[in-house]
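fyi for ur records
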Amino acid sequence: MEDIYEEQATEEAVYNRHYIRTDENNSIIRGFSDAFEQPQSDDICINEQGGYQFRIFDGGEENPSLTNDDGIALYKWDGKAVKARTKKEIAVDTPEPLQPQPTETEKLYELVTGLYATLENVGVLNMEDVPNTIRRDIERELAQQQTTTEKR
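which gave:
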């Protein structure tokens, strides 16, 4: 019976290594435990005695998100340790919001109003000859375009 207890007492604790993977800017793009994935040659071991689940910091959250909602890395490797990226660093990597694309109707309307304005400018068309409803729409559109241009 004593042999069984001795054997259990001498067993070593089982640890998993925790690794990170970085991009060309040292932003952390992947983190994992070797319990689930084997590291590539460039992966960096940040904890040789970690638990089963990956943690980017000792005692930190298990399997934390390494990116924000835009997919931008929240952490970086400074060559010695994991650091949180600053708001400024994250902002530099955040893409500009996409501008909504005009609908086909809006594109056609813009072409027609531009054509009317050009024809009037070269003296081919007199806006007085254009029906009131169309003229009002064109004038309103041209005024909006001027306001938008002035704001830029």
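The beta strands are 16-22, 28-33, 44-50, 75-77, 82-84. thats all i got for now
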